[in-house]
Every structure is written in structure tokens, then in C-alpha cells.
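Task 17 of the worksheet. Students: predict the tertiary structure of the chain below and write it out as C-alpha cells. Keep your answer in the requested format; marks are given for formatting as well as content.
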Amino acid sequence: MVKALVARGATAELSVEDVELPEPAAGEVRVRVRAAGVCHSDLSMINGTVSPEFPLVLGHEAAGVVIAAGAGVTRVAVGDHVAINWSPACRECWFCRRGEPWLCVTAEGVSSRPRGRLADGTPAHVTLGVGALAEEVVVGERALITLPRQLPLAEAALMGCAVLTGVGAVRNTAGVGPGESVVVLGLGGVGLSAVAGARLAGADPIIAVDVSPEKEGLARACGATEFLLSDKGLPKAIRSLTGGRGADHVFECVGRAATIRTAWQSARRGGNCVVVGMGARDDMVSFSALEVFHFARSLTSSVYGSADADHDVPLIAAAALDGSLDLGALVTHRISLADVPEAFERMRRGEGARSLVLFD
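Model answer:
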């Protein structure tokens, strides 16, 4: 049995419970989790945005140490330090063969998978096939990426989702270059990672935007050169900082129609608007046919940072090791499993950045 954070329903209170995980089958690996991030996607599992199966072990962003491996495992070995990739590519479907592993069909539409049992014998499900808010997880070997031993496992947990998504949106989806102007709307863990990614890319200026003035210090620590509060005059304020044109690249990291609309209006003519936040299916955004033609802006989404985790996570790890990427700047709270409900409340209030669950 391992301790895990369990949701028994969309409206039920969260609880730390005993969960019995299966032994690793062929091609599977058991990992002792050292740290796990509390992600907005975990909140989406219980607030109605997506519809997983319950009871559900929450969590999908983590790093840890391999403690057991099933038959035929060759990718990792017992004792390896690993980051968990919640969307491992199959390398065989049409999207993977086309070089778009972030769109792999094996993860499309999957919010939970069956794995293990609760102490009372009830079959359990795990978030995105992982269930990382737990002392241990059992995952397929393709979901693991080996990490350098000198990289602290606590902050390394963020590379499996927030950092890969935010940095990937800048590097892979938008292809931001040196000297290009960047705006990031929404400064949670992913948004701050996008700010850090913009600094890595050499963008200038880097304009960070949030509804909370308390986010300014976090934004500047991650690389923002300017900070603005979100209000009705935001597009005009952004134009004043970008030669009157608007930004070359605007990243929407909230997932709301109103914010997407603001991001679109903040991009220059011919600029790029990238939606990183996951929104609700009934939250509609509209554009006039004339403005779509006239402004010649591009509008796209960035799914999992348009990243190939096997390629991109080692690059992010190298940046963390050489000091060009400060993973610790993304963490504002280091907590226990029992503290996750309060972390969700902070998330709802827009407070802080990443909360990180630490295990012994």
C-alpha cells in the first residue's frame, strides 16, 4: 500500500488514502516519487472541465527514482533518477510518424486510466495514466526520461508538465527568436515557465501580465522585463511598450475566451497568438471576418508545448544545470499531500506559482 491523494467524485472532498498498486507488468516500471507538482490540469479533473473516472488518484507531474522494473524493460534501470512524461508517444501512429508526438493518438481524450485498488477493494483510476500525487506510481517505461544525478529531483518534477509546456510553447510552437517581443498572459506555473522560456530565447521585451500585483516579483525573477496588470486597457499598454505595433508573440496561459481575445488584440499585425491554457468547451471566443483578414495574425494552440519530451526534457535539464533556467523560481510552496486542497484554493484565487509536494 502507498499513500495517495484520492478524489472519490467531482464534488467530494479530497483525502489521503491507502492505494494498492499492481506489480510492474512487462514493459512497466515502479517509481518512488520524490516530488510532484500540483497542476491546474489536476484541478480540471475535479471541477468539471474534464470527466475522468472515479475514484481517482490525482497528479501527473513528478520525478523520482526507479525501484522496480517488469520484464523486458530496457529504457531505465533500478536506481535511475527519472522525470515522468504523462503523454508518452507511441512512435507508431500517424502523428508520431509525422513528427508530432505531442498529438499521439494514445493520449488523445484520455483523462484517467484504471490502475490499482483502494484499501476497501474499490478499483481506482489514475490521472492521465500516472496518478503522481502518491508515494509511488507504476507506469510504462516510455513514460520515463532519465535525469542527471546532479539535478535536484524536487524541482525536476516540474519538467514533466509546467516547464515542458511553457518553454515548449515559446521554443517549439512559436519559435521565438532573439530580440522579438513577447507577452505572457497568466502567471501560474505554465505562464512563468513561458516567461523563463522567453528569456532563454533572448526575447526583448518580455511583458508579463496577471490580475494579481503580487505576481510581479515572480515574473521578474523568471525573466520578465515589464509587468502589467490585466485590465481593459491592456492591448493599448502593450502597444506602448512595443513601438505602437503590439507584440510579435503573445502567449495566453489562462484558458478563457476573454483572455484569448485580449491576447489576440495585443499581437501586432502579422504577429502570433498562442493559446496555452486549456479552457471550457462552452466558453466561446469570436473574431470578425474582417479583422482576421486585416491583421494577418496567426492563432494557434500549444498542446504540451509542441514538445517531444524525449528530446526536450534533456535540453531543459541541461539549462537547469548550467544556470540559464532557474527551476526553483517557479516554486512558491513546498507542501505535503494533505496540503494539496489548500494548494487548489490558492490556484483558484490566483495566488503563488507552483506548489510542490515533497516526499521523503
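Marker's comment: The domain at 2-162+306-358 is CATH 3.90.180.10 (Quinone Oxidoreductase; Chain A, domain 1). The chain has a mean pLDDT of 96.
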